[in-house]
Specification:
4 helices, Cytidine Deaminase, domain 2, binds zinc ion, alpha+beta
Length: about 130
């Protein structure tokens, strides 16, 4: 991925975090997946009064891309306070479509803080998927 695309992916994730609906946790998370078609799909976490219905930003982005017809991904960026890694559920959902994807984690409070890690390192023993290894 070239630098311009990487910066656009990170910026989209940061922008999406500002659109999060997180009145319960106040933990705003944004994500952006880069489709093989070159389109970047944003997602934000969407909470609910019935906490279990909450959807994470990563899954929002993936589901948005798949709903638009793209299900092959080149990279994902996730923006949050502290630049935290995705939860287990999101790791498994990412694995479904992109088992060898690189994950960029950006701290929205310190945007020069970007960590890059492979999904294989985050989820070394996934539940097997049709696309996966
Ligand atoms: Zn999650």
């Amino acid at each position: 991925m070239d630098n311009k695309l990487r910066e656009a992916l990170l910026a989209t994730a940061v922008e999406a975090s500002q659109k999060a609906y997180a009145p319960y946790s106040q933990f705003m998370v944004g994500a952006a997946v880069l489709g093989k078609n070159g389109v970047i799909y944003p997602g934000a976490n969407v909470e609910n009064a019935s906490y279990g219905l909450t959807n994470c930003a990563e899954r929002s982005a993936v589901f948005s891309a798949v709903s638009a017809g793209e299900n092959h991904f080149e990279a994902v960026a996730i923006a949050s306070s502290g630049g935290v890694a995705p939860c287990g559920a999101c790791r498994q959902v990412l694995h479904e479509f992109a088992p060898r994807i690189n994950v960029l984690l950006i701290d929205i409070n310190s945007k020069e803080q970007v960590t890059e890690i492979s999904l294989e390192d985050l989820l070394p023993d996934p539940f097997p998927s049709k696309n996966g290894a």
